[in-house]
């Protein structure tokens, strides 16, 4: 009976977490050049705790990855929903952890592939964005892990398109001016990333990369840290 009660409590917590996550995920439509959002981490694996945060994989337009990261930081930081490097335990609860941005050139996860990644990727949850682009992302990763034969879209998928403010910003930030802004944001963010790594107590244990096509900041030992409080590098 006790096990049944515990399983029921865990399911209720999982459902409540997803409801809150989806309410907050709707604000992604405000970010320009953002192609898709996929739920990852404990939210995809179904192993949440009260302190769990919301891990996401964000797909960005090529040439605008640092612009997308900037707007995600501004939007969710303003709302108080963005997890920072110093947030742990209860402070990280229900906040979005922006530790993985990709473009079309980096859809396929780079090796090494441990058991955690092989377990996680077939269970990724499409949350927002164009389904055809999400399908390409999933297909790219089907080369190293068996992915579902069908797109795992359920009630957690938020159908819709970019908001009018996002479309307006895309028009302004296209072309040479957008390239200039991207360059400035890249320089600032790379400087902050390097500064964060210099002060990170476990920098040698991080799986990380930052380039014009990929921003990835994970711990290498995620398999044994399923409590939703993994290290999330941010400014």
Query: H/E order of the elements?
Result: HEHEHEEHEHHHEE
Write down the overall mean pLDDT.
Answer: 86
The number of distinct β-strands equals 7
- Multimeric status of the protein: single chain
Low-confidence stretches: 86-90, 223-235
Main sheet overview: 7 strands, mixed
* Fraction of residues in β-strands: 5-15%
Helix content percent band: 25-40%
**Coarse morphology:** globular
Q: Structural class from helices and strands?
A: alpha/beta
Question: Into how many domains do the coordinates divide?
Answer: 1
Task: Give the termini separation.
Answer: 46 Å
Please give the radius of gyration in angstroms. Answer: 17 Å
DSSP summary: helix tally: 7
Topology, element by element:
Layout lengths: L1 H24 L8 E6 L1 H5 L8 E7 L4 H14 L17 E2 L2 E3 L12 H6 L4 E5 L1 H11 L22 H9 L2 H24 L7 E5 L3 E6 L16
Parallel strand pairs: 2-3, 2-4
Antiparallel strand pairs: 1-2, 1-5, 4-7, 6-7
Helix pairs in contact: 3-7
